[in-house]
Structures are given as structure tokens and as C-alpha cells.
Amino acid sequence: MTTTSVPYRAVLRCIQGCAGEHSLLEPIYRCPACGDLLEVTHDLDALRDRSAGSWMRLFDERYKRTTWPYGSSVWGKQEWVCPEVDADSIVSMDEGGTNLFWAERFGQELGVGDLWVKLCGNSHTGSFKDLGMTVLVSLVRQMMRRGVAIRAVACASTGDTSASLAAYAAAGGIPAIVILPRGKVSTAQLVQPLSNGATVLALDTDFDGCMAIVKRLSTEEGIYLANSMNSVRLEGQKTVGIEIVQQFDWEVPDVIIIPGGNLGNVSALGAGFDMMEALGVTARRPRIVVAQAAAANPLYRAYRNGWHFEPIKAASTQASAIRIGNPVSIDKAIRTLRRYDGIVEQATEAELADASARADRTGMYNCPHTGVALAVLTKLRGRGDIAGSDRVVVISTANGLKFTDFKLDYHRASVAELQPRLANAPLELPNDYDAVRRAVARATAH
Ligand SMILES: *Cc1c(COP(=O)(O)O)cnc(C)c1O
Ligand SMILES: [Zn+2]
Hints:
It is a single chain. The protein has a domain at 100-125 and 234-411: Rossmann fold. Strands 3-4-12-9-10-11 form a six-stranded mixed beta sheet, sandwiched between helices. A four-stranded parallel beta sheet has the order 7-6-5-8, sandwiched between helices. Strands 1-2 form a two-stranded antiparallel sheet. Helix 6 runs parallel beside helix 7 (187-195) and helix 14 (349-360) packs across helix 15. The chain has helices at residues 44-47, 52-62, 78-81, 104-110, 129-145, 160-172, 187-195, 207-220, 232-237, 239-247, 264-278, 298-304, 330-339, 349-360, 368-382, 404-411, 433-444, and strands spanning 10-14, 38-42, 100-102, 114-119, 152-156, 176-181, 199-203, 223-225, 255-259, 287-293, 343-347, 391-396. It has 446 residues and is α/β, with parallel strands linked by helices. The termini are far apart. It is built from 17 helices and twelve strands. Pyridoxal-5'-phosphate binds at residues 127, 129, 160, 228, 259-265, 321-322, 367, 369, 397-398. Zinc ion binds at residues 14, 16, 18, 31, 33-34, 36.
């Protein structure tokens, strides 16, 4: 295993370009001068001490191996992610390295010959949030070891962030507080932080309301903020794009479709591609598409309105993790989409449910957010924005197993105003061979 003694360096800077930089080991979430978001910037000149080819070889050598902590595909790229964490502060549960699923049959149905689904939900807590949480919790552990006063880590969540935070905090021995909108996350997502021993506060509000409260806690109570407003998480999430390119033997796909809510993940995706380009690993850019639920579509509206953004009140959607009306990373996301020839498209409740079910019929098991992305793929292919020859990657953000009610409601046809085209309810039969034989005959008749 090759290691290096070059001191790589990353700092937090204001996205508006205000002067000054801050250490990643400082609990700071916004620019003290203008109040806007911060972002991590890396010392690219130091990273140029290795050639592009040498970085690719190093990342390939480490990929899914056992030398701590490099077997995690996030920490296998540590120099590009978070150089300042010591190996013994790292809290890792083997992030990344997830299946890039070749969606052959679904692609054939849509007329997309080269379709892939990046299954980020095949992860420790079942969503891509683990990619970022390992970085955040590792930084917190290092801060606490150095005597920074942090009472707990906390987040507001539409479900997956809290599941991930609770697990990583528990693994690192750090108290966690999660604030959820009561009745608006799935049962599995609620049970996860409870099981990991987090303090779970269910409030009578929506995600945006929970966010306002946790922000106050982080500025007034010595609580470390784990939402994506804190950009250190995005450094880990950034590896998803790098890993996709790595899985294609360092070739760039034509189009990447990603469901977006708070819009940290699309910003992270763009940041990963920016970094590969800056360090010579890639020479071209993919087109990036953000998929939103029609019920919670502030970015879609901005896209249709010359990138003029206005927050909205998000309505109820089955894609509960992207029910966000006032996304914190809106400016970063728009910047990314401008650079990556971006498209934003939306999907209705019926469209997302049918797309998810249709793709399930070809062997997947999609969460509703992935359903949004698949519905958008179907639309873009239909109107020719995606060509039949394009290599397309859909980012699947969570594991379908967390969304049993979504699946069950669909197959039982129990969602109001929704006619499921592919409902597949169990046939309930007596304990009788002939009844079974007749049912099999009906099922296999052409
Ligand atoms: C968090 C989440 C999203 C949205 O990611 P953002 O960074 O908020 O845009 C999408 N899908 C799932 C399953 C998520 O958990
Ligand atoms: Zn600033």
C-alpha cells in the first residue's frame, strides 16, 4: 500500500468568496461575514504531486480492501475528501463500493441501451447519507479528542439523515439528537435512530420547521450540526461521482439523474466531478439532471423561471425524504447545474409510483425517491433529451426496504387518487391443490 508524507490540506471558505478560511475541525456552518454557506476547498496544487494516473491506481488498489480505513470507498479517497482526520479518529462502517446495477431490461423497455442504477441504498443504514456521515462524525470525534466542547451531534431529518447520524454517533460513542417531523417519516426510518439510542424528538411541524429548531440548538447550546448546511458531509458524498467513474474504468457517463430535496447531494456530485477534472482524471463532463417530486419542486420552478428561486411550502409526497420547500443548498445546486448543462424535471405521485413499480418488475426494489428519478428518466427519454445511445446513470438514494408502506399501499391499490397500473396483490386461496393449480394456470396463460 502506497502512503505519502505530503501534507494535503482542505479548508472551509465562503461560497460568496468572502475573505478568510476556517479549519474543518472548527464547529462553524456559515460565513461569519455574510452568513452564506461555506464549502470545503482543497489545496489542489499539493494534490498535483501525483499524476492523474497515479491517483487512479492508488484508489483502485485500495478499493474494497481491508487496510484500515481505506476499504471504505470514502476513506480510500481520503486525500481528496478530508486529509486532516487521523486514522484512529475515523468512524467508518465500510461506506461506498455499492453496486452499479446494469439495468438491462428496464433500459430496453425505455430504449436506453446503456442504463445503470447506482445503488447507494446498499449501505450500512440504507441510504447515501452514510457517505457523508462517516466524515462528519469522524471530524467530531477528532474535535472532541482535542478538547472542543461538543455536547452532542444533532440533525433535523426527513428520515435517512437521522438514521445515519444515530448509527455513526453510536459507533463513535457520541450522543446524538434527532429532530423529526411527527408522522412524516417511514416506520423503518423512525425505528433506526431509536434502536441506535439517539434521543428522538418528533415535532408537530415539517422538515423546514425542524431545521429552524436544530439551527438554534447548534448556535446556542454547544450542539454540533449534522445537516447538509454543514458542508463537511458533502466531502464524503462527493465520492459517489468519483466512484461511478471508477466503476466504469475511469470513463465519464453521459447523463446522471439524481433525486433532489435539500440539494446537498447534487452539489456534492458536481464537486466530485470538478475535482476529477481539476486533477486531470476526467476530460469531459456528464450532464446532470435533478429529479423532484411535483409536490415539492422549488428547484424545478426555479429552473423554469430562469433560475430565479423562491421557497415554497412543500406538500405531502410519497417521496418523503425530498419533501423540502426551502432547500439549504439551493445556490450550490444552481451553480452545479449551470456547469453541468443541467436539467430539472418533476414527477407526480402516480408517475413516481408507477416508475418505481415498473423498474421493480425488472429486478430492482426502488425507494420512492429513486422512483422520482426513474420517472424523470422516462420523460426525458420520451422527449429526446436523453438519446438511446447515451450512457445514463440513475442515482438510487435509499434502499427500498425502508419503504415497505409505499410498496404495500401501491400493490394493495390503497393510495387515494392513484390507480396503480402494476398492482400485484397476493391471491388468497383455500388450502386446496386444485385451487392452487387453477391459479398457476391463470398466471402462466399467455
Ligand atoms: C436525503 C435524501 C435525498 C435528498 O438529498 P438532498 O441532498 O437533500 O438533495 C434523496 N433521497 C433520499 C432517499 C434521501 O435520504
Ligand atoms: Zn461570506
